[in-house]
Specification:
Length: about 200
C-alpha cells in the first residue's frame, strides 16, 4: 500500500520533533534511533527511508530547535524574553530548552551536518538578538548580542548544573544574570528581585 506524501511528511516531522526533545534532554550520543522512532509512534525500520544517518536527523532536530527558539523573539519585548530565558522553568525544561545550551557539548564530537546546523542556528540567534537591541549601530549591537549570548548560554548551563546540588545558588545566579543582561542590553529594568 502506498503511503501519501502527507503521511510521509508527517512521519518525518514526528521523528524530527521527537529527536529534538530527546537530544536536548539527553544528548545525541545517548539516544538511539529506535528510541526516536518509538517516541514518534513509528517503527525503527522506516527511519532510513527518511534520513541517511543519525547525524542528518540530529541536524534537522537542531534546526527545528533553533526555529522554536527564534520564534520566542516574535511579539515578545526584550525584557520579557530575558525574564523567560533566565527562569527556572526554562532552565529545568531539558527537552525544550535552548539549543545553544543543549547542543554545545555535542559539537566537539558531533557529525558535520549537526555541527553546521548548530553553528548556523547560533549565528541566527545572535543576529536576531542584535536586531532586537534598542541602541547602537549595527556593529555595536552585534558585539553586545554576542556577549549577551555567551552570558545567557553560560549562565543557563551553570544554573542547570547547580540546580540539583545547590538549588538556592542556581536560582540566585539566574536572578543576578537578569540584572547583568539588562545592563548589557542597554538599560532595561533588571527585575532582579522577582523569582521565576
Amino acid at each position: 500500500m502506498r503511503v501519501s506524501r502527507q503521511t510521509v511528511a508527517a512521519h518525518r516531522a514526528a521523528m524530527v520533533a521527537a529527536a529534538s526533545r530527546l537530544f536536548r534532554a539527553r544528548g545525541i550520543d545517548r539516544v538511539a534511533v529506535a528510541e526516536v522512532t518509538q517516541a514518534a509512534g513509528l517503527t525503527h525500520g522506516g527511519f532510513y527511508g527518511h534520513f541517511a544517518s543519525k547525524d542528518e536527523l540530529a541536524a534537522e532536530a537542531c534546526r527545528a530547535a533553533f526555529e522554536e527558539a527564534l520564534g520566542r523573539f516574535a511579539g515578545v519585548d526584550l525584557d520579557g524574553f530575558l525574564r523567560a530565558y533566565l527562569s527556572r522553568a526554562h532552565r529545568d525544561d531539558a527537552g525544550g530548552g535552548c539549543p545553544m545550551v543543549a547542543f554545545v557539548g555535542e559539537m566537539t564530537r558531533g557529525g558535520e551536518a549537526s555541527r553546521a546546523a548548530w553553528v548556523d542556528g547560533t549565528a541566527a540567534w545572535i543576529d536576531a538578538m542584535a536586531a532586537a537591541l534598542p541602541e547602537g549601530d549595527e556593529e555595536a549591537r552585534r558585539r553586545r548580542a554576542s556577549g549577551l549570548a555567551a552570558m545567557l548560554v553560560g549562565g543557563l548551563a551553570l544554573s542547570r548544573g547547580l540546580a540539583t546540588v545547590a538549588p538556592d545558588l542556581a536560582d540566585r545566579l539566574l536572578l543576578d544574570l537578569r540584572g547583568q543582561a539588562a545592563m548589557l542590553v542597554g538599560g532595561l529594568a533588571a527585575a532582579a528581585t522577582t523569582e521565576g
